């Protein structure tokens, strides 16, 4: 079983009103040490046994491009974490 | 400058229809090696210089409890990553 975490964030050039609103609210609560705040999505995919690392990375990239991240506005990174049987 | 990543996910007992829908859609696209899929939120907070590690961890916990995670349905983890001057 292999667990892959995919992190999807807005590209730098994209304004994120949600992040702005949270940062302002935190400022009103007295947390004004935060110079920047980003909000994104995280996905945790558990792959079945018996897949090679290359096969998993290929699928993760395809899945992220096709469904998890909007190519125009977002970019993604991923981490392959627990894995008992990666060959 | 210290960057802290906060990951907010639903508790195990909470059903996440969004994750189910994505997993089913991926199955229809032919990606049926995924045995489990979780969807969560990620926050990246950049703290100003001059704060100690304890002060940052205290603020991250307070902020997460008060605003970023819904205590009843979600739990959170965090990672303190880049940091030039943590004393």
Automatic annotation (TrEMBL), chains A, B:
Major location category of this protein = cytoplasm
Quaternary structure? Part of the FGAM synthase complex composed of 1 PurL, 1 PurQ and 2 PurS subunits.
Pathway terms, separated by semicolons: Purine metabolism; IMP biosynthesis via de novo pathway; 5-amino-1-(5-phospho-D-ribosyl)imidazole from N(2)-formyl-N(1)-(5-phospho-D-ribosyl)glycinamide: step 1/2
- List the InterPro entries hit by this protein, alphabetically: PurS, PurS-like_sf
Q: What is this protein called?
A: Phosphoribosylformylglycinamidine synthase subunit PurS
Highest lineage ranks of the organism? Bacteria, Bacillati, Bacillota, Bacilli, Lactobacillales
Listed A to Z, the keywords are: ATP-binding, Cytoplasm, Ligase, Nucleotide-binding, Purine biosynthesis
State whether keyword Secreted applies. Answer: no
Gene Ontology annotations for the cellular component aspect, listed alphabetically: cytoplasm
Keyword Transmembrane assigned to the entry: answer is no
Task: Give the domain of life.
Answer: Bacteria
- Function statement: Part of the phosphoribosylformylglycinamidine synthase complex involved in the purines biosynthetic pathway. Catalyzes the ATP-dependent conversion of formylglycinamide ribonucleotide (FGAR) and glutamine to yield formylglycinamidine ribonucleotide (FGAM) and glutamate. The FGAM synthase complex is composed of three subunits. PurQ produces an ammonia molecule by converting glutamine to glutamate. PurL transfers the ammonia molecule to FGAR to form FGAM in an ATP-dependent manner.
Enzyme Commission number: 6.3.5.3
Q: Which reaction does it catalyse?
A: N(2)-formyl-N(1)-(5-phospho-beta-D-ribosyl)glycinamide + L-glutamine + ATP + H2O = 2-formamido-N(1)-(5-O-phospho-beta-D-ribosyl)acetamidine + L-glutamate + ADP + phosphate + H(+)
Per the UniProt entry, what is one GO biological process? 'de novo' IMP biosynthetic process
